[in-house]
Specification:
It contains eleven helices and 13 strands. By secondary structure, it is α/β, with parallel strands linked by helices. It has three domains: 115 residues, D-Maltodextrin-Binding Protein, domain 2 (3-Layer(aba) Sandwich), CATH 3.40.190.10; 91 residues, Periplasmic binding protein-like II (D-Maltodextrin-Binding Protein, domain 2, 3-Layer(aba) Sandwich); 86 residues, 2-Layer Sandwich (Double Stranded RNA Binding Domain). Monomer.
């Protein structure tokens, strides 16, 4: 490392239970790699303290900018982010040193009485089921799914940590909430899931389930060490997804879903399928397309795959479904 190798490495993390859990897992891996202790440095981001919706505060970067400022100021040595929170443009001063193997990218439903989405939608003949989510992407696809079933649901905007969101169900305020499978897994609460939502019905956010490990570009020895945690298949998959998001000129809070699947022939990964969706939050209009090709051998090829699918979606009218587009 380029500084005192006897002191602990400082890992910057958000303060939430989920962020601390996933950062703790990375800290253990880095300690094994380096033989050096790793201490967690808790940092509060604007997204943590604001009570407004992500769409209102311009969701792009609100959970990462404070961590990046601490990196650039030398207050921490590296940072761990949920990849889906990262703006698609990478700062030149910071290295995206590692993207470890991805957890389950799917969304999940946590519902009263363990009901599935189809069962909740069936209740709407009496009173529409109230399903909480702060994500326009989820709202668009859940409402579209209900329409396919010939039903209607009520999507209710919510914010808060995992405990707060699940609490809306346990206290009877909502019939269900939708969360990321990966987050529940990382804090040991997967047993509370009522239903895993398959990507055919609800595409996840670009990069969902993956972590990003950043350090200063000037700290080349640390970047090289952290790179040992990188998973090349996860990197090309999420690079394609984020390229799609960037080419649509959409921010983290836009109603855009994307997932790159690695398709295998036996034990050999042979192709990658990239799926994307954009929709109005009422679910009345969706643009959903996919493309399949050889597994990208470089980030440049993954970027090209995302751009090509985005161009096809824009040709189908995707731009008009996203509201205000953000660079």
């Amino acid at each position: 490392m380029n500084d005192n190798s006897s002191r602990p490495l400082r890992l910057g993390t958000r303060r939430s239970k989920l962020a601390m859990a996933q950062s703790g897992q990375v800290a253990q891996a880095v300690q094994q790699l380096t033989g050096r202790p790793v201490e967690l440095v808790e940092i509060t981001t604007y997204g943590d303290v604001s009570r407004e919706s992500l769409a209102q505060i311009g969701g792009t970067g609100v959970f990462v900018s404070a961590l990046r400022d601490a990196l650039l100021a030398g207050e921490i040595d590296f940072a761990v982010h949920s990849l889906k929170d990262l703006p698609t443009k990478q700062p030149e001063e910071l290295a995206l040193a590692a993207i470890p193997a991805r957890e389950d990218p799917r969304d999940v439903l946590i519902a009263r009485d363990g009901l599935t989405f189809e069962e909740l939608a069936a209740l709407s003949s009496e009173k529409a089921a109230r399903i909480g989510t702060g994500s326009p992407r989820r709202m668009a696809q859940l409402n579209a799914w209900a329409r396919e079933l010939g039903k209607e649901i009520e999507t209710v905007p919510i914010r808060g940590n995992i405990d707060t969101r699940i609490g809306f169900v346990t206290n009877g305020e909502l019939d269900a909430v939708v969360l990321a499978a990966a987050g529940l897994s990382r804090i040991g609460r997967s047993a509370e899931v009522s239903q895993f939502l398959e990507p055919d019905a609800v595409l996840p956010a670009p990069g969902q389930g993956a972590l990003a490990i950043e350090c200063a570009m000037t700290n080349a020895p640390l970047a090289a060490t952290l790179a040992e945690l990188d998973d090349p298949y996860t990197r090309v998959a999420v690079t394609a997804e984020r390229s799609l998001l960037a080419a649509l000129e959409a921010g983290c809070s836009a109603p855009v879903g994307a997932l790159a699947d690695l398709l295998a022939d036996g034990q050999v990964v042979t192709e990658m399928r990239l799926r994307g969706v954009v929709g109005t939050t009422d679910g009345k209009t969706l643009v959903q397309l996919s493309t399949t090709g050889p597994v990208p051998s470089s980030s440049e090829e993954a970027v090209a795959m995302g751009r090509e699918l985005a161009a096809a979606m824009l040709d189908k009218g995707a731009a008009g479904l996203m509201g205000e587009r953000a660079l």
